[in-house]
User: Which sequence fits this backbone?
């Protein structure tokens, strides 16, 4: 059945809330069984806009209320009580339709930690076959990579002199160059892999949903908002929907599956009366099930941006001037090439904040121009910048109701730098980054540090700077985490503890944030749990193999 926006009707086995990174995967996989009826519900619009599909235009959907929920977090108590914008996708493809398209699986220890803490079947060896299943890597199938999955993954060209300077400066500092960071130890410098193919964004809507949207057992509804999960005793039986003045109820014969994202799913759970009893009652919502972990365990990658004014080389900012943008757009429309076909995040690095660290805990993402992505509209200027991000933070935040009104955004506090160890790691990472930017390959570029700037010398001064400018990498996870302890919300298959007929499959179930831009891990989780929903045996465990 094609995508529709009319009044919901019909009988379904599964009702999925949210057509994002996980929801599109579930809809495609569950309807492979022609006897399984699925309804996929998305509050946002269809992904028809060229700005969604053109990689270089990624700032436009981020700036749009149509495509972005535009949540605001904070005040953040350890960042000078600042509020911070949190971009989450709204529309087919969800955040995979507005993200930076960087493709990273993470490191082995990320997932081995999940299993070590009781989540059997979630070690990296259990996850690797699903990472392979979902991808079609441009270099083809090999023992570590998938060659015929729905998502097409390509390597960036990284042809600009500033990209080359980044790589050579990192080498001069002592970091290795990793040829395929998704096929080996991720530590070191790399050319970025991306969900871009033929010059177009590969969202989960493009890769998973559109090829199957005409299946007769699949209904896709856009423009409808889920206000709450319908319960009969301890069983979820459906969802209450709203579109303008119209309301409807859809019933699920087997399961309601929440895939509305770390913020959206946590919010919907609380609105449905499922969560911490005292908080739900105080918010004016009828308590359905006391589950204290809902909304807790919120995590994100904290980021600080080091900026350099370029004086010796022509910045890409020159090519992105207002008068050049029509030419870039026309070239992309005609050829799917040129600057329109890149997200500009074409090189990066993973490294340790110090020699005593047991695992990689820092990331560099690099841009060959200056850009402020955090202040509403994106501003571009001459220069280059390192985004320094912390991969495995110890600090935890929360999500809570402000109101029983579904249209009121929840309170979101990430609590960045709450744990003193996080601040120490960031300061160590900053010191190393500054050392990298002083290496000889950068001398030819003539860059001058403008942030933090030459006046910031001591660790105390650097921490003050971080608290004043630190921000989100837009990678929230964890508000409905998997586990077996009292604060776990779901089990290892996404089933909500203490209830039947209700499952969660999205970034909210991740117990710990991985060393990765989280789109790839979330899609992997959806692929893996979809097999469990269908009663299939998990794919056989695999280990990464060394390439000869």
Assistant:
């Amino acid at each position: 059945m094609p995508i529709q926006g009319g009044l919901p009707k019909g009988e379904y086995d599964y009702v999925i809330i949210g057509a994002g990174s996980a929801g599109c995967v579930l809809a495609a996989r569950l309807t492979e069984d022609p006897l399984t009826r699925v309804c996929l519900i998305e509050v946002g619009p269809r992904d028809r806009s060229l700005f969604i599909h053109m990689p270089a235009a990624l700032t436009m959907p981020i700036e749009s209320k149509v495509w972005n929920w535009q949540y605001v977090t904070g005040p953040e108590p350890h960042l000078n009580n600042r509020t911070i914008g949190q971009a989450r996708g709204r529309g087919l493809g969800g955040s995979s339709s507005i993200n930076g398209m960087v493709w990273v699986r993470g490191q082995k220890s990320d997932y081995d930690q999940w299993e070590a803490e009781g989540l059997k079947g979630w070690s990296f060896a259990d996850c690797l076959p699903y990472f392979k299943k979902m991808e079609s890597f441009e270099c083809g199938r090999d023992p570590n990579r998938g060659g015929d999955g729905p998502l097409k993954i390509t390597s960036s060209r990284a042809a600009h002199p500033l990209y080359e300077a980044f790589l050579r400066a990192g080498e001069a500092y002592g970091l290795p160059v990793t040829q395929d960071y998704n096929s080996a130890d991720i530590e070191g410098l790399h050319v970025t892999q991306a969900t871009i193919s033929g010059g177009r964004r590969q969202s989960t809507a493009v890769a998973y949903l559109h090829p199957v949207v005409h299946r007769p057992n699949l209904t896709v509804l856009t423009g409808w908002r889920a206000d709450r999960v319908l319960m009969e005793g301890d069983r979820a039986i459906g969802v209450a929907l709203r579109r303008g003045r119209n309301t409807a109820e859809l019933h699920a014969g087997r399961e309601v599956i929440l895939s509305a994202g770390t913020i959206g799913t946590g919010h919907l759970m609380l609105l449905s009366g499922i969560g911490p009893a005292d908080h739900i009652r105080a918010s004016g919502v009828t308590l359905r099930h006391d589950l204290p972990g809902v909304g807790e365990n919120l995590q994100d990658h904290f980021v600080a941006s080091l900026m350099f004014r370029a004086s010796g080389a022509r910045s890409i900012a020159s090519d992105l001037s207002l008068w050049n943008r029509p030419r870039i757009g026309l070239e992309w429309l005609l050829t799917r090439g040129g600057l329109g076909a890149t997200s500009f995040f074409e090189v990066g690095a993973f490294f340790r904040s110090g020699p005593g660290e047991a695992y990689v805990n820092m990331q560099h993402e690099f841009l060959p121009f200056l850009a402020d992505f955090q202040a509403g509209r994106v501003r571009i200027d001459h220069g280059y910048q390192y985004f320094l991000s912390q991969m495995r933070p110890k600090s935890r935040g929360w999500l809570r109701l402000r109101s029983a009104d579904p249209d009121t955004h929840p309170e979101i506090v990430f609590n960045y730098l709450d744990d003193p160890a996080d601040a120490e790691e960031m300061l160590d990472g900053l010191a190393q980054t500054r050392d990298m930017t002083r290496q000889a390959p950068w001398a030819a570029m003539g860059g001058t540090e403008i942030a933090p700037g030459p006046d910031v010398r001591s660790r105390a001064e650097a921490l003050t700077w971080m608290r004043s400018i630190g921000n989100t990498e837009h990678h929230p996870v964890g508000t409905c985490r998997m586990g077996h302890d009292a604060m776990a919300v779901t089990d290892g298959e996404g089933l909500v503890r203490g209830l039947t007929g209700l499952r969660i499959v999205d970034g909210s179930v991740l117990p710990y944030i991985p060393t990765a831009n989280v789109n790839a891990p979330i899609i992997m989780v959806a692929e893996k749990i979809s097999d469990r929903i269908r009663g299939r045996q998990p794919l056989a465990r695999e280990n990464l193999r060394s390439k000869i």
Observations:
- The radius of gyration is 23 Å.
- The mean pLDDT is 95.
- DSSP finds 14 helices and 27 strands in the chain.
